[in-house]
Amino acid sequence: MTTDWHAECVKKYNVLPRKRLAPSGLVPNVWHFDLRYIPISPPSHMLFLLQKESQFVAQQVLPVGNKNNKSGLLYFPETAKEAALEVCLGLMHSFNTVFDQDKTPGPMISPYAPWRFTTDDRALARAVENKFKALGVKEDRCKVDFVDITTEAHDRFDGLYKGIVRMLDLPDIARAAFETPTSIAFSTLPVADPEGWLMRLQGISNQTPKDVEFQKISDYAQEFMNNEPLPVNSDDNSKRFAHLGETLERIKAITMSSSLEEVRRKADAGDAQHAVDAALRLKYGIKCKSDRTLSREYLIKAALNEQATAQTRSIAHSMLIFWYTGGRKGPARARFVFAAAYHADEAVRLISDRFLVSGGAPTYMASANALLLAMNTIESLTQDMQVPELLVHFKWIVKASDERKAYIQLEQLAAEKKMMKKPNRYRCARLGCGIEADTGKMLSRCSGKCDPDKKPYYCSKRCREYLMFFFHPSPRMMNPTTFLFQNKKYAYLIDDTTYSLPNVLSHQDWKNHKPFCRPGAPCSVLSPSTTTVGGGSTSQGSIRVPVHHADGTTSLLSTSTMEPEMLKEMGAAMKAAKKAGLDGSSTLRMELNEVD
């Protein structure tokens, strides 16, 4: 929207007649408003207005006016201050046009200004009042009071929203899953950690400038790999790392040869690939200052660019997922979950719809990030039908996730048959370690005199011998390879790093195995036949560790070259992240019905 449109809107609003009573002369000319997120595709934010005494209601989808972004996806305020401009314009537009009366039949009413506005969020009241003043609205028309009529306003909006839902081409059982959105409570919304959506496995605060530069380039490359759509019924992840070194050099050359300003100009002119490039530079601060808001703006441009390839648009949607969920403390907020799920669904739909088989069913393609959201959020919220509405809106990502689980289950059966023959061969012998391997070469065996079929195998020196070491990652030590998240038969690509393990101090499992390290002795490995969830194998071999969650599910982290101890640290981090997600999800249904 242009500044000229703002000025024209204010000019019209300032000259409207303003009286204490509404045009009917029977009720006060006082209007209550709030802002709500509408998840119906394409999602948007809706301004809701209520005249309490007459029970008259009106709604306005934001943003209004001459906007290129007609879907409203770009407008996603995290604070009352960010929301204020479009709310002010929406309020003025509503009264300038008498709630778009020219689009509905009936007698025409002369435009008029409200005597006073109220809202149920203190932060929004202050922000809108200040923005009215900044726009040049007359002083007597800027006042916004806080009034707590949340329940009454929600009851009135409930009727309006149910009418909207009834118009959807859906069966009754699907419409029954819809919950009426509540008003957004900006006053209680924690500010998102700007670093929280960065897909970074380690910090950069203590690194040298050269290491920091390398880390940012690695983050850029990793972001692409995490968001590139791949067939869910195959394990092609490792192929993407075959030329990772060349990819890193190419990204470095691109960022060195062109400035952010040049890239932004091309992106603003409609180049979707440059929009993604600009977004990642702004996200990770490559030769510029990090800007979370502007980074999202360029991803939205790429995602909505109908002239771009389905691949580019899918990647952009996938990159947007964790903007909504990353770095947010407290319970999961409904609109952030629904917005993230929308982008995950679009990321799958755009690319999968292009690959139709003869029977008309698509070959589902999904990125690691999209499947990760399905695992950690959508499945958690729908497995007990806490929020069944997610299943109605987001069929593509749900179906892709189901297809992935089915494929991994087949891989699991094959792996279990293989492991049952020689269980010792594929699991670390140290009690409590948990590391397993898909090929025997990934573990080292005891070199003592115990019988070959009784020999214990170990994932690392730490399990065979107790190690005291510290991680000191640097570009020279990094060795990016395949790294998979697997949860309930999923598989997700993240990335990989190898570390050196110095300073052997004393033996650990040797104390357990020593009495058995002789010919004819029984096996020293406890419960060797037990295996965890299976998963796909890689040509170079991989190790994995099970992660048991509080909800009874088991995840599996798998890597081709990451050191076992680092893998277990990642497992602990994943367990903590899943627990945080479950704690938040338990309150989501309540927040769909009550004010945040």
Proportion of strand residues: 5-15%
| pLDDT averaged over residues | 80
Q: Can you list the strand order of the major beta sheet?
A: 3-2-1-4-5
Distance between the termini: 30 Å
Task: Supply the number of helical segments.
Answer: 19
- Within the CATH hierarchy, at the fold level, what is the topology of the domain at 3-188? Nucleotidyltransferase, domain 5
- Compute the number of strand runs: 16
Rg, Cα atoms, Å? 28 Å
Poorly predicted regions are 466-507, 533-539, 581-596
CATH class of the domain at 3-188, please?
Answer: Alpha Beta
Instruction: Determine the fraction of residues in helical runs and give it as a percent range.
Output: 40-55%
Q: Specify the biggest β-sheet.
A: 5 strands, mixed
CATH architecture of the domain at 3-188: 2-Layer Sandwich
- What's the shape? elongated
Q: Structural class, from helix and strand content?
A: alpha+beta
